[in-house]
What does this fold into?
Amino acid sequence: MKTADPRRRPKRFPSWHRRVGAALSIPLLLLAVTGLLLNHADDLGLSRRGVPWPWLANWYGMDPGPLRAFRTRTHWVMEIDGSLYLDGRPVAEEAGRLYGALEEGPWLVAAAGGDLLLLEADSGVLAEVLRPGDGLPEPAHGLGRDRRGVLVRGGDHAWRPDADWLEWQPATPDSATWQTPQPPPPALAAGVRREALARMLNWERLLLDLHSARLLSRAGPWLTDLAGLGMALLAASGLWGWMRRHRARRAAQATGRTPRRIVPRDDVRGEDARGVP
It folds into this structure.
């Protein structure tokens, strides 16, 4: 009886196993890299570092809201999503809604979120924050001037500070001019909006969404499920293949025969092409 050549009876399992493993290599690599980074998110400060790609924030559907801007003698002070910008440069986060800004002596004063922020006019460095009950008689909701100097508008009153912004006196405005928002230069406004979008999306959130594939919207979790099923199938089939080889090896050792080598289909084709009998 003619014995079939084992090389002419290729097994589909090894070739199929390799193809599935190759298809899952990229998801597995992505899971490994993002998981490693997320494990050290606090050390790397990922929650405090914004992603510098505004288009990605747009992909998330993020909108920082309207931009408010006030013109001083030499600067533009702007606020978007509660963050304060001086000439396009961020100077204070979570400052709140901007009600006005002006320059007085060495200070650039901004009324935001009910507080008064004192910045150095030359450098834009935040020097001090005056809050209601702590250097400010009541929440500040506007800034202006009259013939006697600077005015701060509270709830129903106007207040006049001294030169050091330490003492306050109720004021009756005399022909006061209160500040109102103005449209900033388009290029400056676009830059601030890009910066705000980048700050809304941090690296930790992006890596979490990449790790769970939620960046791909509704299809992401399904792809993650498929990758998980594929990995489980690889593990189960790999264990099954190992058990088959182990049993064949033990049987061969018991009978003193050499176990038959299982040749993948691709390897058989390669041997045929090389003229292996």
